[in-house]
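Reader question, answered in our methods column.
A reader sent in the components of a multi-part assembly and asked whether the whole thing could be modeled at once rather than chain by chain. We filled in our standard form and ran it. Here is what they sent:
COMPLEX SIZE: two components
ENTRIES:
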Amino acid sequence: MSMHGGGRALNNVITTKIARDLYLVRTIDRQTKYFEGMWEIPEGVTYNSYVLTTSSGAVVFDTVKPLFTDLYLDAISKITDFKDIKYIVVHHVEPDHSGVVKQLAEKTGSPVLGHPLADKMLKRFYQYTGKFQSISDLYELSTGEYTIGFIHTPWLHWPETMMSYIKELNALLTCDAFGSYGSYAQIYYDELDGNERGRYRWLMLKYFANIIGFYRHWVSKNIEKLISVGIEPAYILPSHGLAARDKSVKEFVNLYLKWSLGEVEESKIIVLYTSMYGFVKKAVNALIEKLQSLGLRVVVYGFNDIERSPISEVIADVYDSKYVVIATSAYDADAFPIAKLLAELLSRKTPLSGKRVIVLAAHGWGPRAGSVIKGILELYGFKELSVIEFAAGEHEKIVESVLKAL
Amino acid sequence: MSMHGGGRALNNVITTKIARDLYLVRTIDRQTKYFEGMWEIPEGVTYNSYVLTTSSGAVVFDTVKPLFTDLYLDAISKITDFKDIKYIVVHHVEPDHSGVVKQLAEKTGSPVLGHPLADKMLKRFYQYTGKFQSISDLYELSTGEYTIGFIHTPWLHWPETMMSYIKELNALLTCDAFGSYGSYAQIYYDELDGNERGRYRWLMLKYFANIIGFYRHWVSKNIEKLISVGIEPAYILPSHGLAARDKSVKEFVNLYLKWSLGEVEESKIIVLYTSMYGFVKKAVNALIEKLQSLGLRVVVYGFNDIERSPISEVIADVYDSKYVVIATSAYDADAFPIAKLLAELLSRKTPLSGKRVIVLAAHGWGPRAGSVIKGILELYGFKELSVIEFAAGEHEKIVESVLKAL
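And here is the structure of the entire assembly that came back:
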């Protein structure tokens, strides 16, 4: 049963077996409102830790956000005795995964394995002074009946990020890559029905755009690297959200390649607007009606006197749109502050270069917002936009002008 | 009874007599969440319209936000017959005051009086094509037993802003200047007790910083102008919030002069922080403890995974602080987005040049946020800041470094 659409569940840990000897420990977080302190996540988020039990001890891959230390350690203790944990693998030192590494290392006495850069980060973040084993790219670790290969996957989405491949299970542990928001109780993407899958892919895109968007060019590079070293996983096991198996492995990889390359949905147009007193909103409403009549899929996000859309979702929906309209107004001899913030975040997080971008700028006495927004996009190298200025209240010609610019 | 501290009242209109023949029509708005589509106002806001009844007809000064058209017209009709309204004065075309001008003009057939620039704005905003009388600076209108002087007060806070002075009542109608947020049922500031006055002055500052902050240099210029033309009001009647009379007139004027000149509270320090995973928050907490022990008044605003402070209040509290600490972290080879937004808004809205500003910047693997925030402040001409970079988790020396930089 999916929980993302319904009421808020309590924080919770789900433990399940993925394949022989490989366990998932998923902590469900409905407490965090802003992921990374920034991105609105009413749907919640999960942190997946994995445990491989072998004849010569267990390997734990990643942990959880510090907030959930006790819940998490309790769940781990039900899979294996702490004293039987032989290695703790840190794919990524961001605290939503490394948050309990120090405590776990102290309880078990086992070494932490990570990218060479992870050592210093763990020392700084947590004053961790226990054993650390630096893992070089493509290093292989044999433990009991399993061989684990480690692959450096830089900038997905920090410099120290790496993945683990458990050869005998064909299981690729990808950390943040292929992850998603949402508080699902299902384990695999293929357990969702058609509608739920569509929703899940959107949450995956939301996560991708928010967290990995700025590093999107590294996704295809790292996927090529995985292929070049012969990895053909039967399982993709990310550190947030649902796992992929069998046919859905390819689906996940294709989504990531598509997003990495900035492919767009040709008939999708996103209209972002800020409106102080309704003039921009009126102009936008007239435009939306026309765009819909042309058969375009129009997605609208407003920022006005009673409404503030989630920026996390704006970024997601811009990410794969062919057309982007940013409608705003002049403000204090500048553009409206939220429009500037959006212009900057979109420039950084989404592949604008494959899109048609139109800036609609209202003013009370003199044009200004259009050139400011244009300036921000140009700063990030995007020059192909159309700017349409209009006096607040006079929006009759807007629809026509936008249609010409599309 | 003040309502700002208690539960949300319904939208409401208060009508009262200010002095012989001069009435206040105050609409209370608890619906607008973001004033100007931007500023968080949990305390609500009011729109004050004034009606002067004379032996040769009534004069209406300003109206209300369009949302409240019916409530407002109903209240006006209880003071005067529409057919007896002789003039409608528009001090400012921003729609929270000009929203019902067109309807009122249509109902009464009376001309609209405003700054020469107001004509075009009314035409554009509302397609108003009725009578308009351009009012030149210092023009005097005699109607019945009253003389009304009009004073252009540009950039408080639009180019077309003006004030009216009813000579026989010594009443200065100041529109947005001297206004405030809050949903008060009292009419005058002097009806509040001591604590409530302190709270009200803070709401006045919040409004000032949010709305007029960018134009603060125009405040003292316009006050000088009012004095130079011999205006010594017994009443200050703003278009938002409470009125001043007698001794509180001087108090309001002095507050505005102080804010216009950027005077600060010498022992006040504001600490703004963004924290993704708690590292910045920990550093800030250690700092706050030390600052408080030094007898400073410390005001803290956080932006983290469960909390997002109202930016409207951040700007207000920065406005009159002597010291400002902006603590943030690196993010995507940049500074954290909210910190950039704050740095820009503070540069525009508050007088940083009279303050000590310290940027505390955390990073996971390489310094970045400090130079980005510094760059934003420098863009606005502020160069005197101290930047202290630290590795996330290593904040022992922060407190010492900040104290040195103060």
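What stands out: DSSP finds twelve helices and 21 strands in chain B. The longest helix of chain B spans residues 194-212.
Send us your own complexes using the same form.
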